[in-house]
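tool_log.txt
---
The assistant was asked to compare two proteins side by side. It first ran the structure predictor on the initial sequence, then on the second. Raw inputs and outputs are pasted verbatim so the downstream comparison step can read them without reformatting.
(1)
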Amino acid sequence: MHRFYVQDIDTADQVITLKDSIAQQIKNVLRLEAGDRVQLFNGTGDEWEAEISRVGKNEISTTLISTIKTIPEPSTKITMILGLARPERIELAIQKCSELGAVKFIPVISERVQGGNSGTPSPQRLKRWQRIAIESAELSRRAVIPLIAQPISLMEAVNQTLIKQNILCMWEESSDESKSLRTALKSLKKHPDGLTALIGPPGGFSQKEALSIQETGAQLISLGPRVLRSETAAITVMSAILYEMGDLGG
């Protein structure tokens, strides 16, 4: 059954009207008809089965039938802070980490951001990234939509996030105080409410940046001797956290 994200679903009114791209997809791509059923979710954890009652020129009318038990979210709410890189790299990281269960992405400006400050994404680019997160949630059957935050400076993101949760900073250069990801995760309590992974841009963080991050209380983490692309590191870290926390098949 096809799933669609609808931001505002008023259950008091059993008739839900679908417009714009969703209506076009249902009518022109999927060619669904009156009587066919779809699943609708609001992005905050609720989902319903609905029946198409009318297929109009620009709108699709559906009637809510019943609620659907949603799949559980990961026990640990994972935020990904991503050093800005070429759009296709960020988009791949957002797509795959959204499928895995990330709840938030914070793009950050650092010393080695590709393109310098001119690499800061436009409002249109941020909307595209949010759309990728939505499509990934639809595909992976998540009922929660990850948030794409506004880009901010690296240290601003670190200081804001540390107030609420632990930060693990991936840094490829050697440090006497660097830990393996597994060791760092085992040192945390069993299921922290929130955890943030900090992934650098291509070229990584400078030594000055890494030391500044460490001084805030964040942990420097090594992913081993191999050098990974930033998007590969993001997917690897997300998967490893889920595994250690028991969220990949128990």
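(2)
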Amino acid sequence: MNNRITMAALPLIVFVVLLGFLLKGLFSDPRERDSALIGKPMPEFVLPDLMSPSVQHKVETLIADGPVILNVWGTWCVTCQYELPYLTKLRNEYGVRIVGIYYDQNHAPEFGQFSDIPKIRIDVKEMVARLGNPYQYNILDLDRNLSLNLGVTGAPESFIVDSQGIIRAHHMGDVNERVWRTYLAPIWNEAK
């Protein structure tokens, strides 16, 4: 008798578990996920400056002046274009330090695709002249090694890194007033 009740209840139990899983997915924000790097040190890197390739950036130079927002972006990214004016406002009005990680989606040497760096520099200069320049500087992550080590899946994505080089926040999507006030600003203020 117990086996028959268990067998009859099994489909109901499976249905309830599946329903719970689906409802959680339905009401969650796909851009918000916990990064495995929160609370961990920034991955080590040595990468060139986008505009001055003889200048090399690394974690120590990134955090030398205190906490920073790392913003992964590219001129090809439409959402990044909408984000630039607000990031510029954060830099100009609130003194938020922002460093760009320039992410070029077309660079794929394994498939014979190489980036035209001089053209990228021109595109970047034109875009930030038109929409605002929030960046203290831009790191050129041509082979996407730093982006991959950070778990970046696209652009824009932003990270708050404190003055000890610890990642305090990760946000997928654009930084706008709502995201800044409700999520990033409290973490930024704590990191300062």
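---
observation on (2): The first strand starts at residue 46 and ends at 48. The chain has one domain: 35-191.
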